[in-house]
Amino acid sequence: MRRPMPSHATVQRRQPRRGVLAICTAAGLSLTACGGSDDGPVQLSPATGATLSGACTELAAKLGTLSNTSITASTTVPAGTLKVAGNDVPEHCLVTGKMAQRTSTVDGQSYAIGFEMRLPKAWNGRFYHQGNGGIDGSVVTATGSFGGGPTTHALLQGFAVLSSDAGHAGSLGPTFGIDPQARLDYGYQAVGKLTPMAKSLIQTAYGKGPDRSYFGGCSNGGRHTMVTAARYADQYDGYVVGAPGFNLPKAAVANIFGAQRYATVATNPADVSTAFTAAERATVANAVLAKCDALDGVTDGLVQDTTACQKAFSLATDVPTCTAERNGSCLSAAQKTAIAPIFSGATTSTGAAVYASFPYDSGLGAAGIAFWEFTAPLALDSGAVGMIFKVPPEPVAGFNGPVFSLTSSIDTLVAQINATNATYTESAMSFMTPPNPTDLSKVKSRGGKMIVYHGVSDAIFSVNDTTSWYEGVSAANNGDATGFARFFRVPGMGHCSGGPATDQFDLVSAIVAWVEQGKAPDSITATARGAGNAGGVNAELPAAWSASRSRPLCPYPKVARYKGTGDVESAGNFSCQ
Length: 577
Hints:
By secondary structure, the protein is an alpha/beta fold.
């Protein structure tokens, strides 16, 4: 199907052939369809703003013709009512509603795609679709956040922003997965339904549709973003992808694999965290720093050269082996045997890889790691795998998450997340993941851009998985995808934020500058969130660091290296090499 030309001067090519441009425009065809690819890379034009037309309170009545949509309210939010990192969000209109309301014939529950849109009175001409985390189920405030501890969100910058619950109520928890359509909406179809509705709503509110459309989120929101780039590339121009769980069913099974390994060495069978205590994790993190910190030219509590570190560090030889009782300063031989396979990557009984490996990094000792390693596999991954991802799902009655995770066969779970039947016609590995994930040709050909970031110390979605994906994208583009997609690893950072890291950065401005002005991000300045930080204080920041330490985040495979002189707390004294 031919893609219609958007309403505002859509594309510009570097040194376009004017005759071809005129013919294509007259025919209503895209430049690519007219062979414009010979003219060089697409450069999308900047968005132009508009003012909300009419009163916000009257908007609900005007939106009555939206297909399969019920608008529940449209109310004015005065300037300063909503704040982002201490900044007053300007006056805007809050529209709430539901799409595709239905009653399931499978579980009898009521379903709908709940959403809210926040429409600035002074609009910048852009639309931002906010991908939310976890198993969704909640219409999170539509500020246009993306993780990473930013002090500015898309709404604050003047975007119209959409947030949704992805098609189910949070009160259902993972049991929404009993309904096959709710699975598909969560996986990808809610985005497909919401996107044209949101653009129509914007058209009604401002008298014009968005000139530029962006999608962003972290964790499951990063997954949503990658899936959208694969399935709905004709609808969006830019993507901010954070810690993407684009292989989420595999990652969840791998986390269950990890819990089973920990259980074999837990000193308290009822508490798997006793398998790898906070003191022991700090010991390993310090051993990683001792071996790898200086690889980037300076000893500063950060491992910038992640790749070199994995070659240099050995859990077996660089962490002391206990010769007596465990006391936090060593690991027992049994612990090393149990823990090493978690980092090298979960496998089936035949040795087949389930998911990616995890790197050793300085953030392993951070407090947030414990939740993902010991709580999540029993409290979250159990329900997600048991009721949302596997076919058939577990019965709701009597389901016990910890028992499910600690006793299930990994081989069986791997088979079940790939299975289908007459009721569940798409497997989890189909509805949750981007089809042909390394094929971003549609994003590239329309002039779209993608910025991906991932914490190296993320304990639930592996930065190694994202690294492998990006290498695949590069391979599919003659070894270089940097013209439209760049990947930034964040040393020390945990899942989306936190850890001993410079975890605050503005990627909204960066993606707009790249998409609309052609300014590719050669580096992104990231800062620490120490005392007094407007974006919230990072409690895991080392005391020896400056409260406002900064570092350049470098596009993979480049690494931030110290220049040899100057304040080690300043990004200006590091370069991407």
